C-alpha cells in the first residue's frame, strides 16, 4: 500500500486511538493501546542499543516452554509490566516469558487483560535481524470477582484488540479493534508513531509462502505434499516465491503487505506445533481476518479454538484466504 509522503498529512497514533474511542471503542481501550505503543517505543530503543549495553545472548535460564531465555526477552517482558502498572483498567497480564499470570495490585476491578509475546524472534538480535512484539486484549466477562487465569481462556473471536510491532529498519505498529487494520511507523526524531498504512488488506493471487522447510522430515505426508506443491508452483492459488525470515512477526508482516501464506505446521512427534495460541496465533489471526485473510490450524479457524491452557500451542496457517483454504483442503484430505 502506498505511503503518505507529506508529514502534514500524518496522523499521530495517540490521536487516532482517541478518535476511534469517540466512534465506538471505549476510552479505556484507547489508554491500553497508548500504553502498548509506549512499551513498543521503549523496546525499540532497547533493541537498537542491545549490543552497546551488553544485552545480547542468553541469560542461562529456561522458560516455562523449556526454551533458553535471552536477555532481551526478559527486558521486553519487564517493560510491559512496568508500563501497565499504573493502568487501573488492566487487572492482569500473561506472557510466554512468565509461568503464571501477573496480577496488578489495586487494579482488581480492571475490565481488561493483556496477553503478549514481548519479543518474538529474539534469536535474531545477535545477527541484527527483524524482531517483533505481539499483543492481545480481552475484556473480562465480570469484574465482580478478583481476576483469575480463567479470564485469559477466551476465544480469539472475543478479542477486543490485537496487533503487533515490527522492529526492523523502521519500527511499525499494526493493530485492529475488530474493524479495519491500520499501520503506524515510528518517527524516532520525535518519538511518536504516525499513521502510514491505513486500512490494510491482504492481497490475493500473489505473494510468497513462508515455512521452515528444514522441518520437512518431521511433517506428515499431507503437509509434505502441500509444501512441495507450493515449492513447485503447482498450487491452485497460483505460484508463490519462497521467503522465510525466522521471526513470526516479520514473516506475517510481509504476508499482510504482499500476500501469500505463512505456515508453521505441527510435526508427527508434536502435532500441536510450536506457536502459542494466546500470545501469537490468536492475535495475528484477528489481524488477518480483519484484513480480509484467514487463519487456521489446518482444520478449523484459529479464532474458534477454545483455550484450555495458558501456554497452549497450535499449528498455524495464515494469510490470504485462497492460500489458506488450499492448505486446509490438502490437510483435511
Structure characterization notes:
With 333 residues, the chain is of the alpha+beta class. The protein folds into 2 domains: 11-197, 2-Layer Sandwich (Fructose-1,6-Bisphosphatase, Chain A, domain 1), CATH 3.30.540; 208-332, D-Maltodextrin-Binding Protein, domain 2 (3-Layer(aba) Sandwich). 29% of the residues lie in helices and 23% in strands. It has 7 helices and 15 strands. The strands form 3 sheets. An 8-stranded mixed beta sheet has the order 4-3-5-6-7-8-9-10, with helices on both faces. A hairpin with a 4-residue loop joins strand 8 and strand 9 (181-187). Helix 2 (27-48) packs antiparallel against helix 3 and helix 4 runs antiparallel to helix 7 (321-332). The chain is globular. The two termini are 36 Å apart. Residues 1-8 have low confidence and may be disordered.
Number of helical segments with 4 or more residues: 7
Mean of the pLDDT scores? 89
Q: What is the CATH H-level superfamily of the largest domain?
A: Fructose-1,6-Bisphosphatase, subunit A, domain 1
Structurally, how many domains make up the residues? 2
Q: Which key phrases capture this entry?
A:
333 residues, alpha+beta, Fructose-1,6-Bisphosphatase, Chain A, domain 1, D-Maltodextrin-Binding Protein, domain 2, 2 domains, 8-stranded mixed beta sheet, 5-stranded mixed beta sheet, 15 strands, 29% helix
Secondary-structure map:
Elements lengths: L12 H10 L4 H22 L9 E5 L5 E3 H14 L5 E6 L6 E2 L8 E9 L10 E9 L21 E7 L3 E6 L4 E7 L4 E6 L10 E3 L10 H12 L8 E2 L5 H11 L1 E5 L12 H14 L3 E3 L19 E4 L1 H12 L1
Parallel strand pairs: 3-5, 11-12, 11-13
Antiparallel strand pairs: 1-2, 3-4, 5-6, 6-7, 7-8, 8-9, 9-10, 13-15, 14-15
Helix pairs in contact: 1-2, 2-3, 4-7
